[in-house]
Write the structure tokens for this entry.
Amino acid sequence: MTGYADKRFLIASHIKPWQAAEDGERLNDFNGSPLISNLDKAFDLGYISFASSGEILICSELEQPEKLGVSESSRITIRAQHQGFMEYHRSECFI
């Protein structure tokens, strides 16, 4: 999403949270997206999510999103296998 390529700073962020996921979903390769820590936190807290097209969704309650590296032009690649997990995130986690 940010284009930051140094993998040492990336976190494998669960899309459907570990606590809500079933055993088979927890380690599913498509229940994750690599994010840098500030975006991982915003995603986990539900302040950002992603549309099925990959475009970012930003909660109106997120103050100064640009300071977190969040902009309305941000997007990720979402494969068909991610869609169910991302639908869960949008409906259950996104504020």
